[in-house]
Amino acid sequence: QVQLVESGGGLVQAGGSLRLSCAASGSGFRLNAMGWYRQAPGKQRELVAAITSGGSTNYGDSVKGRFTISRDNAKNTVYLQMNSLKPEDTAVYYCNVKYQRMFYSESDYWGQGTQVTVSS
After folding, report:
1. In 12, 32, 36, 91, which residue has its Cα 20 to 30 A from 66's Cα atom?
2. DSSP letter (8 states) at residue 8
3. Would you tell me how many other CB atoms lie within 10 Å of the CB of residue 45?
4. 48 vs 50: CA distance, rounded Å
5. Mean confidence (pLDDT) of the chain
6. Residue 9's Cα: distance from chain center in Å?
7. For the residues 95-111, what does the mean pLDDT come to?
8. Smallest Cα–Cα separation from 84: which of 20, 15, 19?
9. Distance between CA atoms of residues 76 and 64, nearest Å
10. By the 8 A CB rule, do 114 and 9 touch?
11. Residue 22, class by beta-carbon neighbours within 10 Å (0-12 exposed, 13-18 middle, 19+ buried)?
12. Residue 81 pLDDT exceeds 90
């Protein structure tokens, strides 16, 4: 079974930066796409960024040019570098990974979420 450990959230002033990490642990699986989603109070959950196993990336419109997603396949870890943070970036950020075990279809696993708060 895949387990995810998220870290890096916290409180930062507008214009500042944070770096989120999500490490997947376990055995007998292959990680496919990995990504970050966020949910702000009163808002629906939205895609922040995603990255395929080959390194292709996709970003939500509101974070393009400010956030960068990357992955370290040797460590089974995905990162989200967040620069020029705005108060509207305040949300709970969730890591999501797609993985596959031998003879099984692809499955999803979600992290517990980490709070990011950006003050004015």
Report:
1. 32
2. -
3. 12
4. 7
5. 95
6. 11
7. 92
8. 15
9. 24
10. yes
11. buried
12. yes
pLDDT band per the 50, 70, 90 thresholds, residue 85:
very high
DSSP calls for 12-75: EETT--EEEEEEEE-SSEEEEEEEEEEE-TTS--EEEEEE-TT--EEE-GGGTTTEEEEEETTT
Report the alpha-carbon distance of residue 96 to residue 42 in Å, rounded.
21
CA–CA separation, 77 and 5 (whole Å): 9
* Local structure of 87: helix, strand or coil: helix
| Strand 57-59 with 67-72, pairing | unpaired
How far apart are the C-alpha atoms of 50 and 66, rounded to whole Å? 14
Q: Render pLDDT for 23-76 as a digit per residue (tens, 0 to 9).
A: 999 888 889 999 999 999 999 999 999 999 999 999 999 999 999 999 999 999
